[in-house]
Design brief:
By secondary structure, the chain is an all-alpha fold. It is built from 15 helices and no strands. The protein has a domain at about 170-255: Alpha Horseshoe (Serine Threonine Protein Phosphatase 5, Tetratricopeptide repeat).
Protein backbone atom coordinates (compact mmCIF):
# COMPACT_ATOMS: atom_id res chain seq x y z
CA UNK A 1 0.00 0.00 0.00
CA UNK A 2 2.88 2.34 0.79
CA UNK A 3 4.45 1.59 -2.60
CA UNK A 4 1.22 2.42 -4.42
CA UNK A 5 0.91 5.65 -2.46
CA UNK A 6 4.46 6.70 -3.32
CA UNK A 7 4.06 5.97 -7.01
CA UNK A 8 0.85 7.97 -6.98
CA UNK A 9 2.89 10.91 -5.69
CA UNK A 10 5.54 10.38 -8.34
CA UNK A 11 8.09 9.20 -5.77
CA UNK A 12 9.33 6.38 -7.98
CA UNK A 13 12.42 5.28 -6.06
CA UNK A 14 10.59 5.28 -2.72
CA UNK A 15 7.81 3.24 -4.33
CA UNK A 16 10.28 0.66 -5.63
CA UNK A 17 12.01 0.47 -2.25
CA UNK A 18 8.70 -0.10 -0.46
CA UNK A 19 7.54 -2.76 -2.92
CA UNK A 20 10.91 -4.52 -2.72
CA UNK A 21 10.74 -4.47 1.07
CA UNK A 22 7.36 -6.21 0.84
CA UNK A 23 8.93 -9.02 -1.18
CA UNK A 24 11.65 -9.51 1.41
CA UNK A 25 9.34 -9.28 4.42
CA UNK A 26 6.99 -12.04 3.25
CA UNK A 27 9.76 -14.60 3.69
CA UNK A 28 9.01 -18.22 2.68
CA UNK A 29 5.21 -17.83 2.37
CA UNK A 30 4.82 -18.44 -1.36
CA UNK A 31 1.29 -17.05 -1.75
CA UNK A 32 2.18 -13.80 -0.02
CA UNK A 33 5.43 -13.58 -1.93
CA UNK A 34 3.57 -13.84 -5.23
CA UNK A 35 1.28 -11.03 -4.10
CA UNK A 36 4.25 -8.87 -3.16
CA UNK A 37 5.96 -9.53 -6.51
CA UNK A 38 2.76 -8.57 -8.31
CA UNK A 39 2.69 -5.33 -6.32
CA UNK A 40 6.28 -4.56 -7.36
CA UNK A 41 5.45 -5.15 -11.00
CA UNK A 42 2.36 -2.97 -10.67
CA UNK A 43 4.49 -0.13 -9.32
CA UNK A 44 6.94 -0.46 -12.21
CA UNK A 45 4.08 -0.46 -14.71
CA UNK A 46 2.96 2.90 -13.31
CA UNK A 47 6.34 4.62 -13.65
CA UNK A 48 5.72 7.47 -16.13
CA UNK A 49 9.12 7.25 -17.84
CA UNK A 50 10.49 3.75 -17.31
CA UNK A 51 13.42 4.32 -19.67
CA UNK A 52 14.59 7.30 -17.63
CA UNK A 53 14.21 5.38 -14.37
CA UNK A 54 16.26 2.47 -15.77
CA UNK A 55 19.01 4.81 -16.98
CA UNK A 56 19.22 6.43 -13.54
CA UNK A 57 19.20 3.05 -11.84
CA UNK A 58 22.06 1.80 -14.01
CA UNK A 59 24.14 4.72 -12.81
CA UNK A 60 23.34 3.90 -9.19
CA UNK A 61 24.22 0.24 -9.66
CA UNK A 62 27.53 1.18 -11.29
CA UNK A 63 28.33 3.58 -8.47
CA UNK A 64 27.34 1.38 -5.53
CA UNK A 65 27.80 -2.12 -6.93
CA UNK A 66 24.40 -3.01 -5.45
CA UNK A 67 21.71 -4.62 -7.59
CA UNK A 68 18.52 -6.62 -7.08
CA UNK A 69 17.39 -9.52 -9.29
CA UNK A 70 13.74 -9.11 -8.35
CA UNK A 71 13.72 -5.51 -9.62
CA UNK A 72 15.59 -6.47 -12.79
CA UNK A 73 13.13 -9.26 -13.46
CA UNK A 74 10.09 -7.09 -12.84
CA UNK A 75 11.37 -4.39 -15.20
CA UNK A 76 12.11 -7.03 -17.83
CA UNK A 77 8.64 -8.53 -17.52
CA UNK A 78 7.01 -5.11 -17.86
CA UNK A 79 9.02 -4.31 -20.99
CA UNK A 80 8.22 -7.73 -22.42
CA UNK A 81 4.50 -7.26 -21.78
CA UNK A 82 4.69 -3.96 -23.62
CA UNK A 83 6.21 -5.65 -26.65
CA UNK A 84 9.62 -4.05 -26.07
CA UNK A 85 11.71 -7.21 -26.04
CA UNK A 86 14.89 -5.36 -27.00
CA UNK A 87 14.69 -3.42 -23.71
CA UNK A 88 13.60 -6.47 -21.73
CA UNK A 89 16.59 -8.62 -22.71
CA UNK A 90 19.38 -6.73 -20.86
CA UNK A 91 17.24 -6.52 -17.71
CA UNK A 92 16.48 -10.23 -17.81
CA UNK A 93 20.11 -11.11 -18.51
CA UNK A 94 21.16 -9.16 -15.44
CA UNK A 95 18.43 -10.84 -13.38
CA UNK A 96 19.67 -14.24 -14.55
CA UNK A 97 23.26 -13.38 -13.64
CA UNK A 98 22.14 -12.34 -10.17
CA UNK A 99 19.78 -15.27 -9.54
CA UNK A 100 20.39 -18.15 -11.92
CA UNK A 101 17.76 -20.50 -10.47
CA UNK A 102 14.73 -18.30 -11.21
CA UNK A 103 12.74 -20.29 -13.77
CA UNK A 104 10.49 -17.33 -14.61
CA UNK A 105 13.50 -15.29 -15.71
CA UNK A 106 14.66 -18.08 -18.04
CA UNK A 107 11.16 -18.39 -19.53
CA UNK A 108 10.86 -14.63 -20.04
CA UNK A 109 14.29 -14.38 -21.63
CA UNK A 110 13.42 -17.17 -24.05
CA UNK A 111 10.17 -15.38 -24.94
CA UNK A 112 12.08 -12.15 -25.52
CA UNK A 113 14.56 -13.82 -27.86
CA UNK A 114 11.70 -15.51 -29.72
CA UNK A 115 9.97 -12.16 -30.10
CA UNK A 116 13.13 -10.82 -31.73
CA UNK A 117 13.61 -14.01 -33.78
CA UNK A 118 17.05 -14.47 -32.20
CA UNK A 119 17.20 -18.23 -32.63
CA UNK A 120 20.81 -18.88 -31.66
CA UNK A 121 20.50 -16.68 -28.59
CA UNK A 122 17.33 -18.56 -27.62
CA UNK A 123 19.25 -21.85 -27.76
CA UNK A 124 22.03 -20.35 -25.64
CA UNK A 125 19.39 -19.21 -23.14
CA UNK A 126 18.06 -22.75 -22.94
CA UNK A 127 21.55 -24.04 -22.21
CA UNK A 128 21.76 -21.59 -19.30
CA UNK A 129 18.34 -22.73 -18.08
CA UNK A 130 19.46 -26.37 -18.20
CA UNK A 131 22.56 -25.57 -16.16
CA UNK A 132 20.38 -23.90 -13.54
CA UNK A 133 17.74 -26.66 -13.47
CA UNK A 134 19.42 -29.80 -14.84
CA UNK A 135 16.51 -32.09 -13.92
CA UNK A 136 13.95 -30.20 -16.03
CA UNK A 137 13.75 -32.68 -18.90
CA UNK A 138 11.40 -30.51 -20.96
CA UNK A 139 14.25 -28.04 -21.46
CA UNK A 140 16.46 -30.68 -23.11
CA UNK A 141 13.65 -31.64 -25.48
CA UNK A 142 12.96 -28.00 -26.35
CA UNK A 143 16.65 -27.38 -26.99
CA UNK A 144 16.86 -30.47 -29.20
CA UNK A 145 13.90 -29.31 -31.32
CA UNK A 146 15.33 -25.83 -31.74
CA UNK A 147 18.80 -27.07 -32.66
CA UNK A 148 17.21 -29.39 -35.21
CA UNK A 149 15.42 -26.40 -36.72
CA UNK A 150 18.75 -24.59 -36.95
CA UNK A 151 20.24 -27.56 -38.81
CA UNK A 152 22.71 -28.47 -36.08
CA UNK A 153 22.01 -32.20 -35.99
CA UNK A 154 25.01 -33.11 -33.81
CA UNK A 155 24.14 -30.60 -31.09
CA UNK A 156 20.47 -31.61 -31.26
CA UNK A 157 21.40 -35.26 -30.76
CA UNK A 158 23.52 -34.27 -27.79
CA UNK A 159 20.58 -32.42 -26.25
CA UNK A 160 18.29 -35.43 -26.63
CA UNK A 161 20.76 -37.95 -25.21
CA UNK A 162 21.41 -35.63 -22.29
CA UNK A 163 17.91 -36.37 -21.01
CA UNK A 164 18.91 -39.88 -19.95
CA UNK A 165 22.27 -38.68 -18.69
CA UNK A 166 20.49 -36.17 -16.45
CA UNK A 167 18.11 -38.79 -15.01
CA UNK A 168 19.30 -42.29 -15.93
CA UNK A 169 17.04 -44.00 -13.39
CA UNK A 170 13.85 -42.11 -14.20
CA UNK A 171 11.32 -43.45 -16.68
CA UNK A 172 10.44 -40.03 -18.10
CA UNK A 173 13.94 -39.39 -19.46
CA UNK A 174 13.96 -42.71 -21.31
CA UNK A 175 10.41 -42.15 -22.52
CA UNK A 176 11.36 -38.80 -24.08
CA UNK A 177 14.34 -40.32 -25.88
CA UNK A 178 12.28 -43.34 -26.99
CA UNK A 179 9.69 -41.06 -28.60
CA UNK A 180 12.49 -39.15 -30.29
CA UNK A 181 13.96 -42.36 -31.67
CA UNK A 182 10.56 -43.35 -33.03
CA UNK A 183 10.27 -39.96 -34.75
CA UNK A 184 13.65 -40.68 -36.32
CA UNK A 185 12.44 -44.17 -37.28
CA UNK A 186 15.28 -45.65 -35.25
CA UNK A 187 13.02 -48.32 -33.84
CA UNK A 188 15.73 -50.65 -32.54
CA UNK A 189 17.11 -47.78 -30.47
CA UNK A 190 13.58 -46.91 -29.33
CA UNK A 191 13.17 -50.50 -28.12
CA UNK A 192 16.16 -50.11 -25.83
CA UNK A 193 14.75 -46.94 -24.32
CA UNK A 194 11.31 -48.49 -23.80
CA UNK A 195 13.01 -51.40 -22.05
CA UNK A 196 14.46 -48.89 -19.60
CA UNK A 197 11.02 -47.38 -19.07
CA UNK A 198 9.66 -50.84 -18.27
CA UNK A 199 12.59 -51.49 -15.96
CA UNK A 200 11.74 -48.43 -13.89
CA UNK A 201 7.93 -48.63 -14.11
CA UNK A 202 7.26 -52.32 -14.34
CA UNK A 203 3.75 -51.98 -12.91
CA UNK A 204 2.53 -49.49 -15.53
CA UNK A 205 1.31 -50.87 -18.88
CA UNK A 206 1.98 -47.89 -21.14
CA UNK A 207 5.71 -48.57 -21.28
CA UNK A 208 5.08 -52.25 -22.03
CA UNK A 209 2.66 -51.42 -24.84
CA UNK A 210 5.05 -48.87 -26.33
CA UNK A 211 7.85 -51.45 -26.13
CA UNK A 212 5.76 -53.94 -28.07
CA UNK A 213 4.89 -51.36 -30.74
CA UNK A 214 8.53 -50.43 -31.24
CA UNK A 215 9.54 -54.10 -31.38
CA UNK A 216 7.01 -54.66 -34.14
CA UNK A 217 8.24 -51.64 -36.07
CA UNK A 218 11.82 -52.80 -35.64
CA UNK A 219 10.88 -56.21 -37.07
CA UNK A 220 11.42 -58.04 -33.75
CA UNK A 221 8.27 -60.11 -34.11
CA UNK A 222 9.17 -62.82 -31.62
CA UNK A 223 10.22 -60.31 -28.96
CA UNK A 224 7.03 -58.31 -29.53
CA UNK A 225 4.90 -61.40 -29.04
CA UNK A 226 6.72 -62.25 -25.81
CA UNK A 227 6.14 -58.70 -24.56
CA UNK A 228 2.45 -58.83 -25.44
CA UNK A 229 2.01 -62.24 -23.78
CA UNK A 230 3.58 -60.79 -20.66
CA UNK A 231 1.12 -57.89 -20.76
CA UNK A 232 -1.86 -60.21 -21.25
CA UNK A 233 -0.99 -62.47 -18.33
CA UNK A 234 -0.57 -59.52 -15.93
CA UNK A 235 -3.47 -58.18 -13.89
CA UNK A 236 -3.35 -54.40 -14.27
CA UNK A 237 -4.96 -51.84 -12.01
CA UNK A 238 -8.37 -50.64 -13.26
CA UNK A 239 -7.10 -47.06 -13.50
CA UNK A 240 -5.11 -48.07 -16.61
CA UNK A 241 -8.26 -48.89 -18.56
CA UNK A 242 -8.71 -51.88 -20.86
CA UNK A 243 -5.08 -52.92 -21.23
CA UNK A 244 -6.03 -56.39 -22.46
CA UNK A 245 -7.90 -55.12 -25.53
CA UNK A 246 -5.02 -52.79 -26.44
CA UNK A 247 -2.49 -55.59 -26.15
CA UNK A 248 -4.75 -58.00 -28.07
CA UNK A 249 -5.14 -55.48 -30.89
CA UNK A 250 -1.35 -55.21 -31.17
CA UNK A 251 -0.98 -58.99 -31.05
CA UNK A 252 -3.51 -59.47 -33.86
CA UNK A 253 -1.88 -56.74 -35.87
CA UNK A 254 1.47 -58.55 -35.52
CA UNK A 255 -0.01 -61.89 -36.56
CA UNK A 256 -1.80 -60.40 -39.56
CA UNK A 257 1.34 -58.48 -40.57
Amino acid sequence: MLAQAYVGLGEVEKAIDAASAAVVSWGPDQANRIQALAALRSVIERIPDLDAYCAKREGQVKETGLDAPVIRKSIGLVYLARGEAVKAIPQLLSARDLQANDAEVHEALLAAYDARKMKKEACAALVHAIRATPFNLALYAELGKRLDALGDAAAAERAWTSTVEAQPNEAESHRLLAIRREEQRRFADAVEQWRQVVRVRTDEPDGWLALARSQLRAGDRDDAERTLREILKTKWDERFGDVESRATALLHGRTEG
